[in-house]
Specification:
Layout: H1 35-50, H2 61-76, E1 80-88, E2 91-99, E3 104-114, H3 124-143, E4 150-157, H4 165-172, H5 176-179, E5 182-188, E6 199-201, H6 218-231, E7 237-239, H7 248-252, E8 256-261, H8 270-276, H9 300-318, E9 325-329, E10 338-339, E11 352-355, E12 360-361, E13 365-367, E14 377-380, E15 396-401, E16 405-406, E17 414-423, E18 432-438, E19 442-449, E20 460-465, E21 473-482, E22 489-499
Parallel strand pairs: 3-4, 3-5, 5-8, 6-7
Antiparallel strand pairs: 1-2, 2-4, 6-8, 9-22, 10-15, 11-14, 12-13, 14-22, 15-21, 16-21, 17-20, 17-22, 18-19, 18-21
Helix pairs in contact: 1-2, 1-3, 3-9, 6-9
């Protein structure tokens, strides 16, 4: 794990009625991963380091021995494995790539972790913990003779500690057609920290800080992992896609990413200690990048929970039957959305409209000139004008309503959409972006409030369970407001979909 950890801020405004995506058919039941088996792999990695100068770093004999250990386990379990070599700093590095037979070859779920340590120590938490956990999950796939609908690929990366060199080499050398087959990448880097937190990569940018959301699909990966921790009563918090681990090369080429993280050299706050236990004022891992990162530097509870979370995400995602689309709109043609259908809007400028948006900036991007797909989206005041404040939302609320949508009975219905809300630092919680479903009753299914801080525009994904409306004719109503006095407020929506 590289550099200073971004620990993720609490969201200023939380989505309403959101839940992890549920497939049309129930996925195979995820297994409970044996903690003793995971720790046995860690013991092997510790022994390898001890026998090779105390390290498993890139270019050292301890790293190649680690790679060969992992590969040998996978070969014996029936995987098709590759020891992919690359050169960095005059030394040969290796990635271990393992494919489980079966599943759709054009729909790959990839799970990875870095296998190397720093030169200073054996790297048992960083990142033997992630490597051992995904190895045991991969072996459990074999024991259960899993037959996933998606194709499963696992990876152990070399030279992460020197700048994500192994994963970058892998992604850079994949032909574009092969990259396109990888639909999601799950990354597990430090999952047994001795003073642990429980962080999930912020795929939907609900925290509203840092680098923005991951590529489309990242929000769903976050929600799947969140569902597991919720099921065992463990609260989670977001951590930013800050580029310090091996998801970086994947999100750079548009592949959805997610994963867990228990903390590195960052200091656990009093609020975090109250949330998770442990010791406030001390690092999540005081042995981070040090010689004391040994097999004694592991919290068994955190390791066990995260190994089970990995299995839950792999089983849930890989064995699910893809949902069927009930209704969708990409806004490339006019389908009957109506602005101010209720006649109650108060906005004087920046009303919702469908069209090709023009970018605006003011202390950062406020209106995006690019859509999620195609040319058009729904946007508040699509023209840039002479300045960012000329066509932004002003004077109150603007709404736009979909044409009627007939929902089927039975099954789980989910509404998803891409969205953003941007505002200046003089905004407040009176400003908002909101999605309602209106049938025989009305329900707000998603809401993002403003705040007294600058928020730049970045596409995020929201998903809501609307099964309560099954069998009804409904309309989707999207609202935005600059309601706290003049502030620079913009919003956008693209790719609205209902699935079952």
């Amino acid at each position: 794990m590289k550099l200073l950890a971004a620990l993720g801020a609490l969201a200023l405004a939380l989505p309403l009625a959101l839940s992890a995506p549920t497939p049309a058919a129930v996925a195979a039941a995820p297994p409970n991963i044996s903690l003793s088996n995971v720790k046995a792999h860690l013991t092997q990695l510790q022994t390898i380091a001890t026998n090779n100068g105390g390290t498993r770093a890139h270019g050292r004999t301890g790293y190649l021995a680690s790679a060969n250990y992992v590969k040998g386990q996978l070969d014996a379990a029936g995987y098709t494995t590759t020891l992919q070599s690359f050169t960095y700093n005059g030394a040969t590095g290796y990635n271990v790539i393992a494919d489980w037979p079966g599943g759709d070859p054009n729909d790959i779920l990839m799970t990875g972790s870095h296998l190397d340590s720093v030169t200073a120590g054996p790297g048992i938490n960083d990142n033997g913990s992630g490597s051992a956990s995904i190895l045991e999950v991969a072996l459990e796939v074999s024991r259960q003779a899993l037959q996933p609908t998606k194709h499963l690929r696992f990876a152990w990366w070399g030279a992460e500690e020197l700048g994500l060199r192994g994963s970058q080499f892998y992604v850079n050398n994949l032909p574009a057609t092969e990259r396109a087959k990888i639909k999601a990448y799950l990354n597990f880097d430090m999952v047994g920290s001795p003073n642990p937190g429980y962080f999930l990569y912020d795929g939907d940018n609900s925290d509203g800080v840092g680098s923005g959301p991951g590529p489309a699909g990242s929000a769903e990966l976050e929600q799947t992992l969140a569902a597991y921790f919720s099921s065992i009563g463990v609260p989670t918090r977001g951590t930013d896609f800050d580029g310090r681990s091996d998801y970086g090369p994947f999100i750079a080429v548009g592949i959805a990413a997610g994963g867990t993280f228990t903390g590195a050299e960052g200091i656990k706050s009093s609020a975090q200690a109250q949330l998770w236990g442990g010791t406030a004022g001390q690092a999540f891992d005081a042995c981070y990048h040090r010689s004391c990162d040994t097999s004694a530097n592991i919290n068994d509870t955190a390791l066990d929970r995260n190994a089970d979370a990995i299995a839950y995400s792999v089983w849930t995602i890989a064995t699910a039957t893809p949902p069927a689309t009930v209704w969708s709109d990409t806004f490339e043609s006019a389908t009957g959305w109506v602005t101010n259908a209720g006649g109650t809007d108060t906005a004087t400028t920046g009303q919702w409209e469908r069209g090709d948006p023009e970018a605006t900036t003011s202390s950062g991007t406020k209106q995006l000139g690019t859509t999620v797909s195609g040319t058009n989206d729904l946007v508040t005041g699509r023209l840039a004008g002479a300045g960012a404040g000329e066509n932004d939302l002003d004077g109150g609320t603007t709404s736009i309503q979909s044409p009627p949508i007939t929902l089927p009975t039975g099954g789980t219905l989910r509404l998803s959409l891409s969205w953003y809300l941007a505002h200046g630092s003089n905004a407040s919680t009176a400003d908002f972006f909101r999605v309602r479903v209106v049938g025989s009753t009305s329900s707000t299914v998603f809401q993002q409030l403003g705040a007294a801080s600058n928020r730049d525009a970045a596409w995020s994904t929201a998903t809501a369970d609307i099964s309560a409306f099954a069998g009804q004719s409904v309309r989707v109503v999207i609202e935005a407001a600059d309601a706290s006095g003049a502030s620079l407020v913009e919003a956008g929506v693209d790719d609205v979909k209902i699935t079952r």
